Amino acid sequence: MSIGAGALSSGPRSHEIGEVSLVGGRTLGHVTVAYETFGALSEQSDNAVLICHALSGDAHVAAGVDDYGTPRPGWWDALVGPGKAIDTEKYFVICTNVLGGCSGTTGPESLDPGTGRPFGLGFPLVTIEDMVDVQALLIDALGIDRLRAVVGGSMGGMQALVWALRYPDRVAGVVPIATTWRLGAQAIAFNEVGRTAILGDSAFNNGDYYGGGQPHHGLGIARMVGHITYLSDESMRAKFGRRLRARDDHAFEFVTEFEVESYLAHQGQKFVERFDANTYLYMTKAMDYFDLCAGFSDLAEVFRGSPVRYLLVSFSSDWLFPSYQVREIVDALQCVGADVTFAEIESPYGHDAFLLEPEAQGDLITPFLGSLIERSGGRQ
Q: What residues contact residue 183 under an 8 Å CB cut-off, 6+ apart?
């Protein structure tokens, strides 16, 4: 049943999905999904674009207001908005906070109906597929049969790929950016270091820290480690070099001296103020589990017969999800004759380039969205 999509405007919203069966075999009841919309849904309901956020993101993808009506910039303002690459004067843009998140959608800090206390580590492990299934249920509730496109970077790109495979008749095109079809050993290793820092924090209390202060130290370290993987050697050299902060010489003490040290500490502190440690554990584990090829003989078989159009984008300096991993997806799609376009953008910004290179991405995304032909009855 529709919940009045045509009347929705920008701003935080939530919708109770109800019971959700998870890939891991458990059932989660009373699931609520937080989302925001931008622009207006057309009379034909054929201009909806779903944007999926990365690990630490939320539903506030573009400029709007917060829960208190205060104007707040979005995390992808450079790409989403009136007259921008994803033009909210043309498209009805939807962005949800993912299942397991900490920005309104049911997750570890939500109350467990059985106990009346936050789930903590009692929350079931979720997968990228579970996140997408919840999004699909919201799209149902919005009265939208088919999306024009699903767009996302990093973990958001994983969700876009899952949409194409799990709901191929419900999306015309997908734009996975700076992503991969499964994490390699190096990416899993970095995630494990972050989780270990959180789990080893004395304040973690086996995940039951709500009301008493979360494990600030462990979560801050996890963010510092993760943030290093988002940058590149070139960008760090240009931004920091070996410059000292507020001193002319070394202190010969174990204190913060280099600008890069101060920067990482600042990033860790900012993250702790807005994110939940348990959610970090769940999001990184979901990424570790992600593997499009699971159950298939090879990656090409995964995409055989796919009717969806694909635009894949990578960045030259991204060493977290390097271009060769995106090319593996492209090669598999081409092998089975799928409609795929690929571009590697030259950028010094590493994995963060999907947030910092709006013009180059816009030059690709704008014509791709405009070229998508909506299908009726499963036919173009």
A: 191, 287, 288, 290, 291
